[in-house]
Amino acid sequence: MPDTPPSVPDFTQWPSFPFEGDLRVKQLDEPVPFEPPRRGEADRECTACNAPDEAYIWVGERWRVRAMDRPTGLPMVLILESRSHLDLGDLPNLLAAELGVMTVRLERAVRSLDGVARVHVNRWGDGSAHLHLWFLARPYGRLQLRGTFLSLWDSILPPISEDQWRENLALVAAWLAEFGGRPLAEPPRIQWQAPSSLSSTSPANAAEEPEEESLSVIEAADEIPESDAAADLSDPSADPSEPDPTPQADETPSGESHSAPDSASDSGPGSDPDDEGEDEREDAPDDRPDAARTREV
Hints:
Strand order of the largest sheet: 4-5-3-2-1-6
Oligomer: single chain
Strand content: 5-15%
């Protein structure tokens, strides 16, 4: 008896679904007995551990934030990574507490950008064993981009301008630096030209320059399980990450003496998680600046 092909699911009729026309469901492959190792597992190199701080837009003592290598279709796509080579379920209590703080802080920073309505936070982890969370900004007013398929639309929409992209990166890095760490993203420089040199870059010459294709969320190497991707993107000249250093209050806003991560670091390995939660609630600062939606320069 021949197999009946599965029917196309209802979500293909949703307004947010980016495709139309005649669709059919792919044949599902048979399950494999053993899954291949991800990057950072077994003998495979870890791209995040080998990446230098200069590859990121903001770096702290225990966390780093990086962007795509060029603009994509969404106003902002960022990745939050731990310095230590750990996956989500391997985080100790201190880093687990800080992950919550960093997630909220980065979401606020991205949402403060002009033209951003919502920030989608995703974690897949099928390509790399090093913890990384995705932050995708949905453009304001683009109701068709709401929901599940935002990462697909990032591959479809035309890339935003590089100047706007670099300005957004600098604003997010500056926002995070208000609470500690080091911003590494700089705003675009103004290209000053004397009147006699204005004719050197004509629209005709600019059109001759080839444009690079943007790297989208779906195409990013950390979510592609091919074994060749890690060898291409890893930086063998960089040192692997070291174990997390002793926690310090380096990300505490000025004027504050305690923070949620600091209170978590005071608890020993045998401490009660409930007690840790109470300390964090009492000491946790309000990460929101005076004007929560005012861009930090």
